[in-house]
Amino acid sequence: MNTWISRGLAAWLFALSSSFLAQNETDVLRYSWIDPLASARVTAMGGSFGALGADLSCMGLNPAGLGMYRRGDLAMTAGVHTGSTNALWGTRQVEAAQADVVASNYGVALTYPSVDADWPFFTLAVGHQNRTPFAQKVEIDGVSTGNSVSDLFVSQALDDAAVYGYASTDDALDAGEIFGYGASLAWRTGLLLPDNDALYATAAEGNVTVDRTIERKGRLAETQIAFGTMFQDRVSIGATLGLPRVSFEESSTHKESVNATDADLQDWAFEETLSVSGKGVLLRFGVLARVSDILRVGVAHQTRGRLTLTDTYATSIRTSWIDEPATSAASPTSNYEYLLFTPDRTTVSASVLMGKLGVLNADYVRSDMRRGELRDSEGWLSTGYDFGAENDAVQAGYRTVHQARVGLELRLGNEKQFRLRSGGGISTSPFVGDAVVSEANRTHVSVGGGYRIGNLHFSAAWRTAWHSEDYYFMGAFSPEAPGQLQRRASSLLLSAGLRM
After folding, report:
1. Pick from 277, 225, 210: which is nearest to 250 by CA?
2. Rounded CA separation 188/395 (Å)
3. Looking at the predicted structure, is the pLDDT value of residue 29 above 50?
4. What span, in angstroms and rounded, lies between the C-alpha atoms of 270 and 328?
5. Torsion, Cα of 65, 69, 73, 79 (10° steps)
6. Domains of the chain and CATH, by start
7. Distance from C-alpha of 214 to C-alpha of 94, rounded to nearest angstrom
8. Given a cut of 90, is residue 1 above it in pLDDT?
9. Which one of 27, 71, 84, 421 is separated from 94 by 20 to 30 angstroms, measured CA to CA?
10. What pLDDT shows up at residue 18?
């Protein structure tokens, strides 16, 4: 198996550095391998809508679909999103969930008639889309192991302080001048001990029982300004200016209880907090063509996105002793600004119009994750770091992702006022074959319905998606085998709109 194992990697990697750099190739995946929420109509059809139109979600799929509007549209979609995770490590299995209220899609489309008969309508749309909610909770407890994360702090301390220009490792650790987010905290709380034979040792000797909790929240959202029109009722064209905004928070606690009855240390805990915020820009272009009365085809392309992000990161260690008071130490809070480029994406679609019975749509999406990249922002919160190792990891560990989606809408009722919708799809793993153990393909299914009365339209959708990923609960450099996270993201959405 390849030693490249960043996915699901705990932030121990951050602490292994004497700096506070907390960015790695996992960031590229977090903001690139996404399965966006949309309106209830599009969500119920499995997100497959690339060769259809007259829906605000077209701004995030194929903006040429805006050219199919003949009247304006004011709509909003909101609901509940739940991220559940079944964590498996050794013989232990624990399930946890995190829920969030989401406004997945809302906006307005204004359609104007034209004096040019070849271009009869022009539509300008403005909207907001929740591209990806980050709500997730991971819990695992009661796992007994002979390894300890504190061994990583020992490795840090054995890295001679003279390399960093300090005469004494002990003094540098005590002052927090080296490894201020890891080994320095362990030294100041007694977890890291002086040792006559090996220079340094850990107080967490022997078998330990591990408890781990991770909570994530936030979203990748996007404000969209789009334009669409149709030529001679045959070809639609459109473009979207996307202004993504990132809000991500993660807090984690790693606790080890010492099993030895004669140990001085009862337990210790390492806590991390990470907050990421930022904004960016991207473009989408699309074309739709009516091949015949029943067949439409479409192509859309999304450019690479450019995100300017700021990370705020901090750690702390707490130790509890049998015969002594508990001790704790905290790192400084770091702030670092950097650039992240998300890969471009191409979508090819086809739809079949089944008269008054309904429509069937299929999408194929291709995106090369190796087009993701980290760069220094050259701003006042940057350090000039070149991200060479992280970008090499992107090239070595990621690959092209292929996604297939299909969606069906049936029209029911005497006046065809009811809609029944269903859809689904699968996305291939973004990892090279030997980079991970788990099967990382992501699958999703959805179902929903709608009702139209006059100028009003209402829809509901339920969607669930699932995949598995590796997770190194003891850190990437521990000999401990990885566990597995079986992840599921589910959403229940309601839409209401007015055609104007």
Report:
1. 277
2. 39
3. yes
4. 10
5. -30
6. 12-148+204-499 (2.40.160.60)
7. 13
8. no
9. 27
10. 38
